[in-house]
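Archive entry: two folds, one per protein. Generate the first.
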Amino acid sequence: MPDFTASNSPRTLNVDLPVPDEVLNWRVSQFQVLEGLDYPVGLREVSKRTAEDAYEAAEIDSRARAFYNHRFQKFQRWLQPQVHDRDFYPWVAGDIHPDLSAFNLDKEVSGKLARHPGAVLPRAVDEGLFKKVSDYHTVTGDTSPPMSVKEGPLPWYGQFIRGCYMTAVRRLLAKAELSPVYAQVDEGFLNRQHQARFRSFLNNGVVDVDNWHLRTFIKDYYLMLGAAIPDFASFAPDSP
């Protein structure tokens, strides 16, 4: 159910809980990209106290409380993702990749959207879902991804994927130090095979992913989505 609290107007809805103003936060990246494309979204700054109250009211799992307490100690600036047109809310109520099952999309187009790095990787990197990055790399390899504009091969793409893996593992390990629940929820334990892969990348000089690349792919994904679904593009009529 949309959250109507703290709205700036009758048409403004809050999306999920407030988020820290952090460079790799997938919600921040998503909403900044969409706002740059003239979609009806924004990030309203809220006080840390307001953010803490929102998390308290949401009854966050007690096993994860230490992690969230750490976030409130670390980040002073908090942002509330919002949509300024309630009809746009379903497009951003879930993940970056919305449910497209209601649309009669061409199978090839649907496949390209589902496989697009902008739809899969930003949240996986942010939340430390290293296995999702690893599985994505296994399926797609180092080949250039589908893009909204035809371009030549991206020689740095394989390094980009490996950087996503490195960052996702680091973020999971940082979470696990604060709250053991993050060492196993959804993704399973960081087993020896994944540890070996992490050390191999580390020894070969693979660096953490550049968020500029993540946001570039998010933008490309939404351009592709708008080209495939005019209903989505209609919310930003002046978007390129």
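Generate the second and append.
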Amino acid sequence: MLASVTLCGCATTSDESSPVPAPSETDPQAATDRGGKPPPDATDDVEAATESEALSRLREAVEEDPSDAQAHRRLGVALRRSGQIDEAFEHLEQAARLAPDDPGILLSLGTSYSGERRPGEAETIYLRLLEVAPDHAIAMNNLGNLALRRGDEIAAIDWYRRATEADPQYLLVRHRLAEQLKYHGRFDEAYPEYERILEMQPKDARERIAQVESLYAMGAINLAREDYELAERQLSRVVQDLPNHRSAHWSRAQALIQLGRQDEAQQELQVHMRIRHSMGQGF
């Protein structure tokens, strides 16, 4: 049984920047999303003051040693996070000029380009990164994301597959690969990828959700294959782990109907509709 997950969501295709084996989807270079917060209060003032002090220290480090590529990178990352985009790129690009073969600097610059919707420049940097570090799975993943955004799904599949080969424990990119294969009806290729995902140890909530979504996808594939008993068992586990997974409730109802378990199917359909209603989608 998968670990219980109380969150609900799917993996996205945001670029990644952490060099750990199976990184999260969080891009540390992305500007902070402050949407949904209450009006500024004393806490916000403290945060602003702290951010300003941190930027001052980072600027001082660059002034003390303008040839320090990492100092420029750190300042560029902080400036982008604070929304000072133009100045951020001045320092990130200077870092890359000072250390053109540094994978971390190239990744920071690439994710920043991508995050600011500059895909051509991002792709150039990621390809340069692969010249420096040919097995850099995150760069391959990010190239796959860029390909997907421009509608080149075949190229995306190729990059995602290459990323899984470079790092077999990279759970999120394996999930992206499987999802693309499934979307294109390549069930016999997608299914083993989902099975591998279920064998992996998730490192955070996003990876746990990707595992549950993988089990849902397996249930959906078996539903399409008319293996209703296996589909029902898999989808039953999904709704246990993600009780608000409306698609899993609906799919399980279809399997139950085929198995002649009409009362249970009706209950699943009612849950499906309640979830839709709670999300403002009506009945």
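Annotation attached to the second fold: Residues 42-64 form the longest helix (23 residues). The chain is about 70% helix and 0% strand.
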